């Protein structure tokens, strides 16, 4: 589903690099991407989105080489992927429901409004459908981005520290929603620092440190001293 083969990346004149990154994520897998700040987690997610090309090596999504210079289906690739990133990409002069419908507009969905309302219900925001983003708390905004990723029939969800600036209770709510997202055959890649979440969910964990994968284990348990 997602495959990195001998991927190298660097910037800042060599002060940061990812070296020989190899992994394969199967369809329907849930994978935590762990590592200290600056390890390269966001960089890996961006290469899956083809927001950035590797300096060397290959990135495949659904067996398609997306990292080739000639790859043309960028829009199609991104339509398959729901993103939960910290820069929320929310349109502030549209209400919550309109935001969701807007994100479905290019996808040719049967009934975007019903789909948007159903997603808002799943994340517990149905009563705030007509609110504007500025009227939501950080946790509610994060739930909105999750609702957006849940709609549109996405095959892959990329989450970049989705509990990063939330209190513990709200973080667990978010995790509960991820379990829900993951019930279908959606593939989830979840970058985080949160040891409690990783150790409770017991999913596959890929640990990156100093530009390398130092661990890739099926039933992830990890402690902060590992990273
Ligand atoms: N577009 C960019 N240009 C230059 N340096 C970058 C860019 N994006 C990230 N970096 C740097 O690359 C390193 C890895 O970043 P990142 O992938 O964001 O790590 P993480 O998400 O694990 O914290 C950091 O040192 C960061 O400052
Ligand atoms: Mg990051």
Structural summary, described in words:
The chain is an alpha/beta fold. The chain has a single domain (27-49, 78-221), classed as P-loop containing nucleotide triphosphate hydrolases (Rossmann fold), CATH 3.40.50.300. The chain has helices at 41-48, 74-79, 96-104, 112-122, 138-150, 168-181, 195-201; strands at residues 2-11, 16-25, 30-34, 56-61, 64-65, 81-84, 156-160, 187-192, 204-209, 212-217. Strands 6-7-8-3-9-10 form a 6-stranded mixed β-sheet, with helices on both faces. Strands 2-1-4-5 form a 4-stranded antiparallel β-sheet, covered by helices on one side. Helix 6 (168-181) links the parallel strand 7 (156-160) and strand 8 (187-192). The protein is globular, with a radius of gyration of 17 Å. The protein starts with a strand and ends in a 10-residue tail after the last strand. The model has no long low-confidence stretch (mean pLDDT 90). The structure holds adenosine-5'-diphosphate and magnesium ion.
């Amino acid at each position: 589903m997602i495959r990195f083969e001998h991927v190298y990346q660097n910037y800042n004149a060599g002060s940061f690099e990812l070296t020989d990154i190899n992994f394969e994520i199967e369809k329907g897998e849930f994978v935590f991407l762990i590592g200290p700040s600056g390890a390269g987690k966001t960089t890996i997610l961006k290469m899956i989105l083809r927001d950035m090309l590797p300096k060397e090596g290959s990135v495949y999504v659904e067996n398609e080489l997306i990292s080739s210079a000639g790859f043309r289906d960028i829009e199609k690739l991104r339509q398959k992927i729901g993103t939960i990133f910290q820069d929320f990409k929310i349109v502030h002069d549209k209400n919550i429901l309109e935001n969701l419908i807007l994100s479905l507009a290019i996808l040719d969905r049967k009934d975007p409004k019903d789909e948007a309302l159903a997603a808002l219900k799943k994340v517990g925001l149905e009563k705030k459908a007509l609110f504007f983003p500025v009227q939501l708390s950080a946790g509610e905004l994060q739930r909105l981005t999750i609702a957006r990723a849940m709609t549109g029939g996405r095959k892959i969800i990329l989450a970049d520290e989705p509990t990063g600036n939330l209190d513990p209770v709200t973080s667990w709510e978010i995790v509960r929603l991820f379990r829900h997202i993951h019930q279908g055959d959606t593939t989830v890649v979840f970058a985080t620092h949160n040891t409690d979440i990783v150790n409770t969910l017991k999913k596959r964990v890929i640990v990156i440190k100093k530009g390398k994968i130092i661990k890739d284990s099926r039933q992830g348990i990890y402690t902060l001293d590992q990273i």
